[in-house]
Amino acid sequence: MISVVRGKLALVAKIILLALISAIFLMLAQSAFAQKEYVIGIFLFAVILLTLFTYLTKKSIPLKFFLPGILLLLAFVVSPIIYTVTMSGFNYKTGNIVSKDEAILQIQNRAFEPDPAGTSFDIKIGTFESKPAILVSDIENKSYFLSTFDKRIPLSNAQLTVNEYLVAQSAPGFSPLPTDQLAAADSKYSGKRFIFKDEYFLSLEGLDVAIVARQTLMYIEKQDVFKNIINGTVYKDNGRGNYQVAGDSAAILEPGWRAPIWFENYSKLFTDSRFRDPLIRVFIWTVIFASATVLTTFALGLLLALALNKPLHGRRIYRSILVLPYAMPSVMSILIWGGMFNSEFGAINALLGTDIAWFQNPNFARTAVILVNLWLGFPYFYLVASGALQAIPNELLEAAAIDGANPRQIFRKITMPLLLQILSPLLIASFAFNFNNFNLIYLLTGGGPRNSLDGEIAGATDILISYTYQIAFGSSTQDLGLASAISLIIFILVASISLYGIRKSKVLESFV
User: Fold this and answer.
1) Is the separation of the CB atoms in 326 and 379 below 8 Å?
2) What are the CA-CA distances from residue 26 to residues 31, 33, 38, 79, 192 (Å)?
3) Residue 350 CB: number of other CB atoms within 10 A?
């Protein structure tokens, strides 16, 4: 058996496996380079070299065990953090998503106006000399021509086949696009300019109509500016990802591009009242929510653990029932509770005989959030508190009782301090988890109630992470750069609070 594991057969199997893995990563790296994702391509190529070096040499035996974890850590933890930090320094939002080169191309493609008469023609799309072309029918003047990206070819009526509406269907050298290819024709024909005459060109409006238009903006590459051909207005790079008329912040060209603005996203959070006031309000509620959740779930879990730590008939059944909320998928539980809090047909109002609009009133919505999280969280603390109670030596409790301490004193002076020493890391971890408890807020209240008609982004129950989600994806203007800045602030806050809690609890002293 050992000879099979360590012999030539094992070596051949290892080489084959490494070859397959290297081939897969090499294919992915080539694809990344082809799509100009150079960072990803370089990383994948480095993975190939590290893998071959580690498993085909004996330079570092420990690295054979640590390499997969290190690579996964770099790919899925370190890289997103670096990307988030980088994007927090960019103007990266709706209208400023693409690169500068692509923005210039899109501005050029969009910068045209119809001719004064609003002329349009019926067309048939296809190919001429293996290049995209359109067969144009000027029914009013009874003239026809072929148009490509670089030339216009007049046609006589005798050369054409027309339908009952006098729209040309075929011409010499012209191959109409088959019906099954029309759906994919948009990327090849839409936005393209087909030759008409003078400064005017033909632009497609759908797949059977073209309008006559002319370019209004010209890009001057040497000066890196756009110039309006009609009135001479010049648009310059404003350093924030847009071409703009000097002195007029409203006169900008779209789309823009991702541009570095350094610490502006961070400064906006503290200097701009549109972002500062909601952020402060959301931060205060986040701290209250996380603290209240930890205190209530820990208190209820500990109370039940103390109650069931004593001999009790049917204790196993009770324990099984108490663990059920923790065993159920949290998504399912949250959605069920959302239905139970429904103001019209929910079970909560039916049992209480009330008609409370739980999710329309800020105070009731916050109460509902904490109650649901209490239901979801107390089984966890019941389990860990039960285990911690079992770890406390009975001799300590018996010695305290012999010395005359009553049950309350024993709990306050012995049981509770020992429990806190054991459970402090879990309390801190629970606080950090609830500080970013996105699922509960998003599924139960959606962060509301909020006045969306007034442009309000932060709702009454939004915590920092759900507020960040709203900024990034939940509104008409998706500001990914600002959301990245808030994400970094959340990370710093959670890390600072967690480190402070660990230091104050002195939990690490036992490991020194």
Assistant:
1) yes
2) 9, 11, 13, 20, 36
3) 12
Residue 25 corresponds to which tokens in the numbers above?
């990563």
Maximum Cα–Cα distance across the chain = 118
pLDDT tens-digit profile of 377-389? Answer: 999 999 999 988 8
Q: What does R_g of the chain's alpha carbons equal in angstroms?
A: 34
Reading the block at residue 508, the tokens are: 């690490």
**Under a CB-based contact definition with an 8 Å cutoff, are residues 217 and 254 in contact?**
no
* Phi/psi of residue 168, nearest 5 degrees: -65, 135
Alpha-carbon distance 187 to 206, whole Å?
A: 12
pLDDT of 119 strictly over 70: yes
**Cα(319)–Cα(205) distance, integer angstroms:** 68
**Residue 257 bridge partners (DSSP):** 98
Number of H helices, E strands in the chain: 19, 18
* CB of 446 closer than 8 Å to CB of 438: no
C-alpha distances out from residue 241 to 18, 91, 381, 417, Å: 45, 7, 50, 57
Element (H, E) at 195: strand 194-197
Average pLDDT (349-362) is 90
Compute CA distances 253 → 244, 247, 338, whole Å: 6, 14, 45
Residue 56 contacts residue 16 (beta carbons within 8 Å): no
User: Residue 440 and residue 335: Cα distance in Å, rounded?
Assistant: 9
Tell me the residue type at 384. V
Q: What whole-number distance in Å separates Cα of residue 200 and Cα of residue 116?
A: 11
C-alpha span between 215 and 199 (Å, rounded): 7
22 band by pLDDT with thresholds 50, 70 and 90? very high
Does the pLDDT of residue 502 top 80, yes or no? Answer: no
